[in-house]
C-alpha cells in the first residue's frame, strides 16, 4: 500500500500553515494533511470529516449489523431495497467496473469472502461451503438487478453484497470533497494507505508518498512518488491472509474461480482521478494477473504499478509508465 511520508501522528504546528486531522473509521484510521494560512474552525472541520466517513461506514460495512449493506443482505430474495445516495453511487460504480472487468471485480462475493474465513462471522474457512459456491458463480451474479432510475437494487438468494473492494476508496473521495467545500484545496487524505492528493504543499512541491514493499511482517519503503491531483489505491496478497486446507490464502477473491487469488502478483497500485476508481481497479487487476491487467490499464489510460513474484522467486516491479519507477 501507499503511505504518506512525514505525517506526524498528532497535529503539528512545526511547519507554518501545516495542519493534520485524523480519526477512526472502517476499523482503521483516516488522516488529512493540509496547508492553509486562513483561519478556520478546526473542530467543525474535523466533525464534518468524521461525519463523511461515518456515513460510508454506517452504510457499507459488513461488520455493522445495522448497516445498509447488511440490510440488503438480509432482505428476502427478489425484494427491492431503496438505496441512499452514497450506497447508490458506490453500487453503480461497482457494477460498472464488474462489467468492464468481465467479472474480475465483483461486488457480490460476500458469500465467497465468508466461506474462506474473511467475513464478519468467523475467521475459520469452510472449504465445503466454498466448493459449493464455485460451480455456477457467474450465472448467479447475473441475476442481480440494479434499477438506476428508481435508485434501488435486488439480489438473488445466493449473492451477498460486499463493497470492501471499493468503499474505502470512496471514503477517501468523500474526505477530499469536504476539504474542497471548506476552500482547502491543498491536501493529502488517506484511509489505511488508500489516498488522494490535491493541490500542492507549501512552496509548490507535490506530495511525497511511498509504496510499501510487499512483506507481511515488516513495513519497508519500496518506491517513492511525488504526486498531485491524483488518487492511489493498492490491493495485495501479502497481508490479510489465512491458512485454508494447508495453504496460505489471501482475502482477495477471484469471482471466476470462486477461490482466493493465486497468481504472480503480490500487489497492484492504481493511479486514477478518483480513489473509488483506483480502489476497484486495483482489486480487479489482482484477479486478472499481471499480463492482462497491464494491457487493460494501458488501454484504459490508467497508471498502475505491479509488484510480481518471478518464477525464480525474485520480486520485480513493473509499471504502465516506466517514468513512475524512475521517480
From TrEMBL:
One Pfam family linked to the record: ApbE
Q: Which residues of the sequence carry a binding annotation for Mg(2+)? A: 165, 279, 283
What the record notes about the co-factor is: Magnesium. Can also use manganese.
Q: Which Gene3D superfamilies match?
A: ApbE-like domains (3.10.520.10)
Cofactor(s) required, per the database record: Mg(2+); Mn(2+)
Which protein family is named in the record? Answer: Belongs to the ApbE family.
Q: What is this protein called?
A: FAD:protein FMN transferase
Q: Which organism is it from?
A: Roseibium aggregatum (strain ATCC 25650 / DSM 13394 / JCM 20685 / NBRC 16684 / NCIMB 2208 / IAM 12614 / B1) (Stappia aggregata)
Amino acid at each position: 500500500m501507499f503511505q504518506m511520508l512525514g505525517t506526524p501522528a498528532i497535529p503539528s504546528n512545526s511547519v507554518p500553515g501545516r495542519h493534520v486531522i485524523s480519526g477512526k473509521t472502517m476499523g482503521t484510521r483516516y488522516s488529512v494533511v493540509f496547508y492553509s494560512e486562513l483561519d478556520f474552525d478546526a473542530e467543525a472541520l474535523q466533525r464534518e470529516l468524521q461525519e463523511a466517513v461515518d456515513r460510508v461506514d454506517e452504510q457499507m460495512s459488513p461488520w455493522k449489523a445495522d448497516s445498509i449493506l447488511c440490510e440488503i443482505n438480509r432482505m428476502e430474495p427478489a425484494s427491492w431495497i431503496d438505496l441512499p445516495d452514497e450506497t447508490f453511487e458506490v453500487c453503480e460504480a461497482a457494477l460498472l467496473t464488474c462489467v468492464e472487468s468481465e467479472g474480475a471485480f465483483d461486488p457480490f462475493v460476500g458469500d465467497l469472502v465468508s466461506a474462506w474465513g474473511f467475513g464478519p462471522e468467523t475467521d475459520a474457512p469452510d472449504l465445503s461451503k466454498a466448493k459449493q459456491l464455485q460451480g455456477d458463480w457467474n450465472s448467479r451474479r447475473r441475476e442481480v438487478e440494479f434499477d438506476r432510475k428508481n435508485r434501488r437494487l435486488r439480489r438473488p438468494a445466493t449473492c451477498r453484497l460486499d463493497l470492501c473492494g471499493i468503499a474505502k476508496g470512496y471514503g477517501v473521495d468523500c474526505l477530499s470533497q469536504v476539504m474542497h467545500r471548506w476552500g482547502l484545496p491543498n491536501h493529502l487524505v488517506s484511509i489505511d494507505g488508500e489516498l488522494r492528493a490535491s493541490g500542492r504543499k507549501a512552496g509548490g512541491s507535490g506530495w511525497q508518498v511511498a509504496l510499501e514493499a510487499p512483506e507481511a511482517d515488516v513495513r519497508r519503503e519500496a518506491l517513492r512518488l511525488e504526486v498531485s491531483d491524483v488518487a492511489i489505491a493498492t490491493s495485495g496478497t501479502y497481508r490479510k491472509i489465512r491458512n485454508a486446507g494447508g495453504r496460505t490464502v489471501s482475502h482477495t477473491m477471484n469471482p471466476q474461480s470462486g477461490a482466493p487469488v493465486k497468481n504472480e502478483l503480490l500487489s497492484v497500485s492504481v493511479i486514477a482521478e478518483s480513489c473509488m476508481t483506483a480502489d476497484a481497479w486495483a482489486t480487479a487487476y489482482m484477479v486478472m494477473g499481471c499480463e492482462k491487467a497491464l494491457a487493460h490499464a494501458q488501454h484504459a489510460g490508467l497508471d498502475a504499478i505491479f509488484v510480481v513474484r518471478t518464477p525464480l522467486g525474485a520480486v520485480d516491479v513493473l509499471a504502465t509508465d516506466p517514468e513512475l519507477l524512475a521517480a
